[in-house]
Design a protein that fits this description.
This protein is mostly beta strands. It has one domain: Immunoglobulin-like. The chain is about 10% helix and about 40% strand. The chain is built from 1 helix and 16 strands. The chain has one helix at about 200-220, and strands spanning about 1-5, 30, 30-35, 50, 65-70, 75-85, 85-95, 100-105, 110-120, 125, 130-140, 145-150, 165-170, 175, 180, 185. The strands form 3 sheets. Strands 1, 2, 7, 8, 9, 10, 13 and 16 form an 8-stranded mixed sheet that branches. A 6-stranded mixed sheet has the order 3-11-12-6-5-4, with no helix packed on it. It starts with a strand and ends with a helix. The model is unreliable at about 1-25, about 155-160 and about 200-220 (pLDDT under 50). This is DOMON domain-containing protein. InterPro entries: FRRS1L (IPR042789). It comes from Lepisosteus oculatus (Spotted gar).
């Protein structure tokens, strides 16, 4: 299943549009205009980030393959940005071999496409994207950017917690509506907890502990 919007050569956000994939029998849906910038601001604070080159900021340079994730009530909100004449992708894997791919692609007719795919190390096989909400995107030359909420990342224990995954960043060609084998640019050595609401969680625990300590001291005085 794919989501299309019209290309632009300016930095003006794209207007939402609806189009269909020629290789998909599943009706396509609307991809909204991405307003604002995808940025590395708040990385490690309110969201988890991975990038190539390390610590690059997609708001400063297009040549920055970047993903971020943070938990929300509806799932995990993900951002993806990078430079490619084909596609960029973030892949979440439980074993670093297979996984779920989220793909932001540029078709040959200069339209932006969002696709979901199964990853098996050597190939990406497109599948339904019915587990994705609120897809937005922009295409500026060969700079691709997409944001969306993935619902299937949540585990059954908590609506605010996500299963840890290995994170993979990749690029590739997108020719005749077909995804080429991914060229992996980053693969984490350990699993990343996308459910972390950032450094604010430990801080909250510390504050709660301090409140308990203070209340104990106050009541101990009486």
């Amino acid at each position: 299943m794919s989501f299309n919007t019209t290309s632009t050569n300016s930095t003006t956000p794209l207007n939402p549009t609806v189009s269909s994939s020629s290789n998909s029998a599943v009706p396509s849906a609307t991809i909204g205009a991405l307003t604002g910038s995808i940025t590395s601001d708040q990385c490690g604070k309110t969201k988890i980030c991975k990038a190539v080159p390390k610590n690059c900021n997609p708001a400063d340079t297009g040549d920055c393959l970047f993903m971020s994730g943070k938990s929300t009530l509806g799932g995990v909100f993900l951002e993806l940005s990078g430079l490619s004449s084909g596609y960029i992708a973030t892949i979440l894997s439980s074993d670093n071999i297979t996984g779920d791919a989220y793909v932001c692609a540029q078709a040959q007719n200069k339209t932006l496409r969002f696709l979901r795919a199964d990853y098996n190390r050597s190939a990406l096989v497109e599948k339904s994207a019915n587990d994705i909400d609120t897809i937005k995107g922009s295409l500026n030359g060969s700079i691709l950017q997409c944001s969306f909420t993935a619902k299937n990342i949540l585990n059954s224990r908590s609506k605010a917690a996500a299963t840890p995954y290995y994170v993979i960043l990749a690029v590739g060609n997108f020719t005749n509506d077909t995804l080429s084998a991914p060229d992996v640019r980053l693969r984490t050595d350990s699993k990343v907890d996308l459910g972390l609401s950032s450094a604010s969680a430990p801080a909250l625990t510390a504050v709660n502990g301090m409140l308990i300590l203070v209340s104990g001291l106050i009541f101990g005085m009486y």
